[in-house]
Specification:
The chain has 376 residues and is of the alpha/beta class. It has 14 helices and 16 strands. Helix 7 packs antiparallel against helix 11. Pfam families: Fumble (PF03630).
Length: 376
């Protein structure tokens, strides 16, 4: 019954020597967020390697998630389990009662970036990242920017510093979970928090529940992939003249521009729109909002490499929308985008970190002063 509620259980093989710090956490962890429950557990495959397993459950099936972990591990009252996420704090007693173990809470901010840094530091990109999605839409080959837009793009591109092929650091870690954030990560593991905001995954799913009738990531993104933004978004032909001498340049007439714009211009109600089109416009709206922040910070810091994390980007359509954005706007066209295969960086970091590590993490962490670049 518990496995019926399992969303996914992916695995990643690593050298056992890299996981010695997990002994204190029973080689497992729980990240109970505000939307999903992410579980990390390990399997010793007997040849000097471990398989890290990343299991995902919806929060409404939290009990199934706990029973699933209990069946996978031989836990007893002498063992300790590391937990993170707001729900692990709220439901700490429930976790202890169901699993019969003592728990150690690891701060989510620390665990998120400990897990990310571990993956990036120790494993090749092709192991931890999805292949970059292809974007073959011919409309993106027809863009001819006007002088003002071209100058703006060139100025932003000039801010991005060169990096050797395959070089991972420095980079931005752009996490899109229930909330969102962007962090600058250096090769020595030091970080600087650049941005946090709440208009992210939780709000996205809430809007989807109200507007298209489901708050399930997979279903919403499947719907969005079948939608047509041009049915509900303002398109170029709605606002610009089709002229080779336009000061705005020449862009494809059918290219979407303002999400949901047609609702205002043509007095549309929700009943007039296909759910798939609404879903696609919602996805694009949240991505445009997030990507504007990411590209601004990349330009400000001169950073070329960006790694996206969170379960939102586990769907191919979301990754494709990021690539489309990069073809349209500013410096993102010369940046390197990578999408982590797992949204369990916090669970992984919680298993690896100790309370003393968290103290050291916050002592070393910097919060951005956006009046200056960290490169200055």
């Amino acid at each position: 019954m518990d496995e019926e509620h399992l969303v996914q259980d992916d695995s990643l093989r690593v050298d056992a020597a890299l996981l010695t710090k997990m002994r204190d956490s029973s080689f497992a962890a729980i990240d109970r967020g505000s939307t999903l429950t992410k579980i990390l557990y390990t399997v010793d495959i007997g040849d000097g390697n471990y398989d890290l397993h990343f299991a995902t459950f919806r929060n409404k099936h939290f009990e199934s998630a706990l029973n699933y972990l209990k069946a996978k591990l031989q836990l007893n009252a002498d063992r300790r389990l590391h937990v993170t996420g707001v729900g692990s704090n709220l439901y700490g007693d429930r976790i202890k009662e169901t699993l019969g173990v003592n728990t150690v809470f690891i701060d989510e901010a620390a665990s998120q970036f400990v897990g990310f840094y571990f993956l990036l530091r120790h494993l090749p990109l092709e192991t931890i990242c999805h292949p970059l999605p292809q974007c073959n839409d011919p409309i993106f080959d027809q863009i001819q920017r006007g002088e003002t837009f071209q100058r703006l793009r060139d100025a932003r591109v000039a801010l991005i510093k060169e990096q050797a092929s395959g070089e991972k650091f420095p980079c931005l870690f752009a996490i899109f979970g229930s909330s969102a954030g962007v962090v600058l990560v250096r090769e020595d593991g030091s970080i600087e928090v650049k941005h946090r905001h709440l208009l992210a995954g939780k709000s996205f799913l809430g809007a989807c529940q109200l507007l298209v009738g489901t708050g399930d990531y997979q279903r919403v993104l499947d719907m969005a992939a079948a939608g047509k933004r041009g049915n509900i978004d303002t398109q170029v032909r709605d606002i610009l003249a089709d002229s080779p001498n336009s000061p705005y340049g020449k862009m494809p007439a059918t290219m979407p521009f303002f999400p949901f714009g047609k609702a205002v211009d043509f007095n549309k109600s929700l009943e007039d729109c296909r759910p798939e089109d609404v879903a696609q416009s919602l996805v694009s709206s949240f991505i445009i909002n997030f990507m504007n922040v990411v590209t601004f910070l990349a330009c400000f810091e001169g950073i070329r490499n960006v790694f996206f994390g969170g379960n939102f980007f586990q769907h191919e359509f979301a990754r494709q929308e990021v690539v489309k954005f990069s073809k349209l706007f500013g410096a993102s066209s010369v940046m390197s985008f990578n999408f982590l295969k797992t949204g369990h960086t916090a669970a992984l970091g919680a298993a690896l970190a100790s309370p003393s590590d968290v103290v050291d993490f916050f002592a070393a962490m910097k919060v951005a002063d956006l009046g200056r670049s960290s490169q200055q």
